[in-house]
Specification:
Elements: H1 15-29, H2 34-41, H3 45-78
Helix pairs in contact: 1-3
Amino acid sequence: MGLEADDGWPETSPPLRRGVKRQIVQSCEIGKPSREIGAEYDIARSTLRRWVQDIRDRRLEMEADVSEQAAPVFTRRQA
């Protein structure tokens, strides 16, 4: 998947772009209608959906990684 910054966006994305994407995704996640976000930032709704899905996928991957790393610790404690 390539190098990623701590914020989940690829390292190749300029910092301003990552910050704007993060802000846009957060607006969507708190319930702002996608048509309003699209009009405000001049982006297609399909682009917004893709960004939201990308960040959710990355979060799920990070959660899975943490679970995999924590499983042996919990198994040892229960034994």
